[in-house]
Amino acid sequence: MQFVQEPPELSEEFAPSARTCPEYTKAFVPSQIPTPPPSDTETSPDPTTPFQDSFTAAQTSTPESDPPDETSLTTVSRTFRPDSRIHTYYPDLVLLSSDSIHFYISYNVLYSLSSNAFNGLLPMSQNQPIRDAAVINVPEHSDVLNVVLHTVYGVSCSQYAPAFESLSAAVGALDKYGYSLSQLVAPSTPLYTLLLSHAPLYPIEVYTLASRHDIFDLAVPTSAHLLSFSLPSLSEDAATRMGPKYLKRLFFLHLGRTDALKRVLLSPPHPHPPTSNCSFDNQKGLTRAWALASAYLVWDARPDMSVSMIESTLSSLGKNLQCDTCEDGLQARIKNVVGQWCVVKVSLILHAIFHT
Ligand SMILES: [Zn+2]
Questions:
Q1: pLDDT of residue 132
Q2: Distance (Å) from CA 313 to ligand 1 centroid
Q3: In which band, very low, low, confident or very high, does the pLDDT at 41 lie, cut at 50, 70 and 90?
Q4: Separation between Cα atoms, residue 254 and residue 303, nearest integer Å
């Protein structure tokens, strides 16, 4: 028998206590299980599938049959095992993923939250003991099903570090199986937290996923990571999946931030009273230079334009100034611009866009 190493975050609550129990391994061998070559059964567990346990068990024999001469490999979810006690409802049903991983789950937990009896796969009732439970085949890969079941049970699967693709597919599967995304992917829920953690690396993917399923509370914080996204690079497919409502919000997010930059740069430094060394005409040169520099910044404006970029561009205007008062006025104006740009919070624009 081989077990993979326990993920470090897995609590004792989820840690099975009967790992070496021979009755367990024999009693719950499903009738249709893969039978790999014997050598496979003794190899180390696959580290890429940390949420499952593989174990060998002698095939169940009857008094009439010959003694078993071959072994079977049954792979069971690490969290959703026959002896799991995640919920007050104990496992009484088995889901078999497309890659033949067994997930022992509670009928009541799955059924009570689903609006379509798990897409019609669940029976009307379930009163069988777990050893007689039916095995229900589902088309999802175990990576996806693992996320789906953790979400339905309301527990985090972060210890398995699921890939974004698995999380994305799980959201689609939850929808298909009749679960409320507004309830299960709400802020502070485990799946919401996991999806949002991918937003810095996959902002457009997370935003598109949120858009497709109208998960407003996920789209808003994710869009803050889209300031550096190049709108022309948005694929037709992503735009279609996003839909007009969220596509419009994405464009207005960029336009709103760019407009804010224009407003911040609009006014040149205040002129000072003319002196013997610096007349109004002399000061017009700085005003013209400010207008040119502002136009350059706005022309090249990106919603995520950095403060240092603005500061360095405008500070270069002071190189040829001969008047200390003009120089002081310029520095004061730059300080003011930088301050205003920092105040133009993304959240304010997001609020304006998403709540209108
Ligand atoms: Zn001056």
A1: 66
A2: 20
A3: very low
A4: 6
